[in-house]
Amino acid sequence: MTNECYHIPVLLKESVDGLAIKEDGIYVDVTFGGGGHSREILSRLGKDGHLYSFDQDADAENNLPEFKDDRRFTFVRSNFRYLKNWMRYYGVEKIDGLLADLGVSSHHFDDGARGFSLRFDSIVDMRMNNRAGITAADILNDYDESRLADIFFFYGELKNARKIAAAVVKARAQKEILTTQDLIDATSGLFAREREKKELTKMFQALRIETNKEMDALKEMLRSASELLADGGRLSVITYHSLEDRIVKNIMKSGNTEGKVEQDFFGRIQSPFTLVNAKVITPSEDEQEKNPRSRSAKLRIAEKK
Fold first, then answer.
1. Are residues 116 and 193 in the same domain?
2. Do 45 and 176 belong together in one domain?
């Protein structure tokens, strides 16, 4: 499996440019995936620089061979929520930059066995780390109706979340919901035909976020990044949906993931970051044409004061 098959990196040049890499700096790529962003960072580092790359997915390790002989590279088999713990383990007190590409990789959507995509009838697994944790099928069959409704409303932003949850509970009373087709059948007729694919995608997104506790992990990682970044260090983050983008925007603007703004005596916002790009950076039309996954991507860059 080649890296290109696994995952085409989004906003590659723009996101790595945003790190303003120093040759002898210490950098972190918290979403290794196919290794595209990591490879680009390493190409800009000198012999005294170092890159730590995180990924919890066993499949990502198939992309490690080309990196194994590079002494400037360390791979961390872990969820990025444990960033601070791992940096402490490696004796790293400060980093000069961190890059995160928060989207689900093309590989996950193309692997029919993982249950991320509507295109395949497979077990509804959806775990980024398929070696541990509960599956999306566990959530569908075990969560009560109210909790399911909250997931579909808050993580999928679906207005008919209560109806979806009720349909899931009704369907699972007849038989367990185990496959993507089971789930689609259970919610059949709840979405207008012209919006069905988009709404189903939102439903799958909501389940994926809950399965992997993505919002909690993102908040923990960003808080750790804020503490770890040296003065002048850069945070370069690519988001794909409004939920994660809001959290990233909040921390860059206010220094906390909730967006609680603190002001000094003169009314100036107190934040540990300065925005590098006031407007979000989006992929060019050419990139969107070549890589459809990039169409919803937004890049935000901030510098530690």
1. yes
2. no
Distant-in-sequence, close-in-space partners of 188: CB < 8 Å, separation ≥ 6: none
- Write down which residue in 187, 212, 237 finishes a domain: 212
- Lookup: tokens for 248: 């990233």
| CATH number of the CATH domain containing 11 | 3.40.50.150
Give the Cα separation of 274 and 235 in Å (integer): 10
The token pair at 233 is: 């260090």
**Which residue, 212, 237, 254, sits at the end of a domain?**
212
> How many separate domains does the chain show?
2
Query: Cα–Cα distance between 181 and 62 in angstroms, integer?
Result: 29
DSSP-assigned states of every residue in 194-232:
GGHHHHHHHHHHHHHHHHHTHHHHHHHHHHHHHHHEEEE
Structural domain of 229 = 3-106+214-304
> 50-65 as b/e, with b when 16 or more CB fall inside 10 Å?
bbbbbbbbebbeebbe
Per-residue pLDDT of the chain (305 residues; tens, 9 = 90+): 344 445 689 999 999 999 999 999 999 999 999 999 999 999 999 999 999 999 998 788 888 999 989 999 999 999 999 999 999 999 999 999 999 999 775 544 444 455 555 666 788 988 987 777 899 999 999 999 999 999 999 999 999 999 999 999 999 999 999 999 999 999 999 998 888 889 998 999 999 999 999 999 999 999 999 999 999 999 999 999 999 999 999 999 999 999 888 877 777 778 899 999 989 999 999 999 998 889 999 999 999 99
Is-contact 211 133, C-beta < 8 A? yes
